[in-house]
Design goal:
Blueprint lengths: L12 E2 L10 E6 L3 E6 L2 H7 L3 E6 L2 E4 L2 E6 L3 H15 L6 E3 L14 E5 L2 E2 L2 E8 L2 H10 L1 E2 L2 E2 L9 E7 L2 E2 L8 E2 L2 H8 L1 H24 L2 E12 L6 E4 L8 E5 L15 H7 L19 H19 L5
């Protein structure tokens, strides 16, 4: 999902889904889990500003590039509230303008929506890795690198890197895979200066967040952030969500053990069930995934809540 997708309100694009009727707002785009709306009447534009977009987090969940028929109750609120908490912790320019009804958020989506500055998003998924796992581990096993960055020998799944690295990927269309790319590829896409700034900001966010999470007994293995250009201020601005279980890999520090896959605070229960014999689903087929069992939905919701509460120190109501 990109905020510049909201520039053509007459032709909504992206993921096809049911949308909400929010008086004064027009739906313009849907990603896998978020929907974008633009102000539709002058009164709202006067209140919230001309160059803004309402970002509404749904309870949809995606896995293996499919949006599932099952939803995770409260997921939209959990991810929105966790993002807002992180935005308050980070010393970086971000896109959030308001998140309360008093400041213009429709009451129907209070708690899971943010009014944000409209950005021209860069076509890069900015990823910082402090630990080796996932797609990075696959490339490392094949070539000893991650996004063409050479790493020391003899690392294993879950190894902590001496220094966090910037490992970008190219954004894909809905339903397609993002593709890992090199830093030189980013330079070719956005130029030297912007590439350097994207890398600097991404690593700054990761380093600060990793320290905060570790103090709370959570390991931040890696995270994905997105940036855009703010035409009003001229600043490179942090957009989308930030440091949630959908965009980051969080592990429990108490059970961390390099050399194997670590349990994570994300969609693990969903992925595990979908690839089990019980689901009967082939992730390499063109068939849509089956609905999730009630217990998988409940355990997934519980994992999201646990991540929110451990990181923020707040109780999710």
């Amino acid at each position: 999902m990109t905020e510049n997708s909201a520039q053509e309100p007459q032709q909504p694009r992206g993921f096809s889904t049911e949308t909400l009727d929010l008086p004064g707002w027009t739906h313009v785009y849907s990603g896998k889990v978020r929907d974008l709306y633009e102000p539709a009447d002058e009164a709202i534009r006067q209140q919230v500003g001309q160059d803004c977009v309402l970002v509404v987090a749904s309870d949809r969940i995606s896995a293996f590039d499919h949006v599932l028929a099952s939803e995770i109750p409260d997921k939209g609120r959990i991810l929105t509230q966790l993002s807002l908490w992180w935005f308050d912790q980070l010393d970086v320019v971000h896109h959030v303008l308001a998140s309360t009804v008093e400041d213009g958020v429709p009451a129907a989506v209070e708690g899971r929506a943010m009014i944000c500055r409209k950005l021209d998003m860069f076509p890069v998924e900015c990823i910082a890795r402090g630990y080796l796992t996932g797609t990075g581990l696959l490339e490392y096993k094949a070539r000893g690198t991650v996004c063409e960055i050479p790493l020391p020998p003899d690392l294993v799944d879950g190894s902590r890197l001496e220094q966090a690295i910037f490992t970008p990927s190219a954004k894909a269309e809905v339903g397609e895979h993002d593709e890992n790319i090199s830093y030189n590829d980013v330079v070719a896409m956005v130029g030297d200066d912007i590439a350097a700034r994207l890398s600097e900001l991404t690593l700054k966010i990761y380093t600060g967040a990793e320290k905060i999470a570790r103090e709370r007994g959570i390991i931040l293995a890696d995270t994905k952030v997105e940036f855009g250009y703010d035409a009003v201020s001229g600043a490179i601005t942090l957009g989308d969500e930030v440091l949630t279980p959908d965009s980051s890999r969080f592990w429990d520090a108490a059970t961390y053990e390099p050399g194997k896959a670590q349990p994570s605070y994300d969609k693990q229960y969903v992925r595990d069930w979908l690839t089990s014999a019980e689901s009967g689903w082939d992730k390499n087929s063109d068939v849509a995934p089956p609905a999730l069992p009630t217990d998988v939905v409940a355990r997934t919701r519980s994992r999201y809540v646990e991540a929110y509460e451990k990181i923020t120190g707040r109780t999710f109501a």
